[in-house]
Amino acid sequence: MTLNIKSDNIIAQIDTKKPRLKKYLVISEQDEKWGFIINDVGYTEITPNSTYPSTGHPGSHMFSWETGRVLNEYHFVLITQGEGEFENKLTGKVNVNAGDGFLLFPGEWHRYRPSQKTGWTEHWVGFSGDLADSIMNNSLFKNETGIIKNCGNQLIVKQFSSLFQLISNEPFGYQRSASGICFQLLAEICNIQQCQNHKIQHQPSISKAIHIMNERIDNSIDFERLSKTLGMSYSKFRSDFKKHTGFAPNQYFILLKIEKAKNMLVQTKLTSKQIAFEIGFESDYYFCRLFKQKTGFTPKKFRLRNKS
């Protein structure tokens, strides 16, 4: 994805120069064919004791606290300053604080508002399309608490900055570029939400273990001994590693070896037996069986299919 230089370099201070930005986009047939459509974006600084929502939204997006609202698109809303409350039928009424975000789904009733005492600064993006449906219907985005904590990090705020800058300028093809930024935004939200759901915290020891695996990919690793050098019991290490990667340590290590074998099959003339020994397998038969299990092809067929 290519953005203009201003979009890439804009500083992530997006609500200090102007109190608000609201942009509701005209969607073309060509935009709809892309499958991921940005419908609207904006940020608003709501001062204490202000009427909410602020004016300037189309009727389909306006609502009152008394009646709430139902949208026909997805929204992600990020609160960077202040506090307030959010409610939908699944979560009930919950508090919202600076750094919190929440997702709104088409057809779901909801309402939210800032505290009269503090106000808040909100940033949002509304999106829809077949590809958006495919992404958002994934169970990874289901959130019974409604609120996604710790969303106000530098990466997410920078992505909002890029969206605002791009859509304000509307260069050729901006819808497609904007959808790419929004996709990255959703990926980061998903990562944050999954860490919260599974109580995952960043652990340098797991990153170090992965680094060691990559450095020793041509050998074998005693993971019980490795866990001790990292200051963890093996059961704790295995559990934490699987939470972070989705794989047990040995499974992950094997997949790294298979990926290296795939590269060697395409880029060298080594036999499968030579490759097996190069990446630390003691048995050519075991390597070939694992390779077919993981890729669906024997090493020979994989090489023929990917021969340039």
What does the model show?
With 308 residues, the chain is α+β, with helices and mostly antiparallel strands. The radius of gyration is 24 Å and the shape is elongated. The N terminus is likely disordered.
Strand-helix topology:
Blueprint: H1 5-9, E1 20-24, H2 29-34, E2 37-46, E3 69-70, E4 74-88, E5 92-97, E6 101-104, E7 109-114, E8 120-128, H3 130-136, E9 147-148, H4 154-169, H5 174-197, H6 204-215, H7 223-229, H8 234-245, H9 249-267, H10 272-278, H11 284-295, H12 299-305
Antiparallel strand pairs: 1-2, 2-8, 3-7, 4-5, 4-6, 4-7, 4-8, 6-9
Please supply descriptive tags for the structure shown above.
alpha+beta, nine-stranded antiparallel beta sheet, disordered N terminus, 308 residues, single chain, 12 helices
Structural class: alpha+beta
Round the Cα radius of gyration to an integer and report it: 24 Å
What characterizes the major β-sheet?
9 strands, antiparallel
| Mean model confidence by pLDDT | 86
State the oligomer: single chain
Sequence stretches where pLDDT stays below 50 over 5 or more residues: 1-17
Question: How do the helices and strands follow one another from N- to C-terminus?
Answer: HEHEEEEEEEHEHHHHHHHHH
> β content, as a range?
15-25%
Number of E-state strands: 9
- The coarse overall form would be elongated
**First and last CA, distance:** 26 Å
* Helical fraction: 40-55%
Continuous helix count: 12
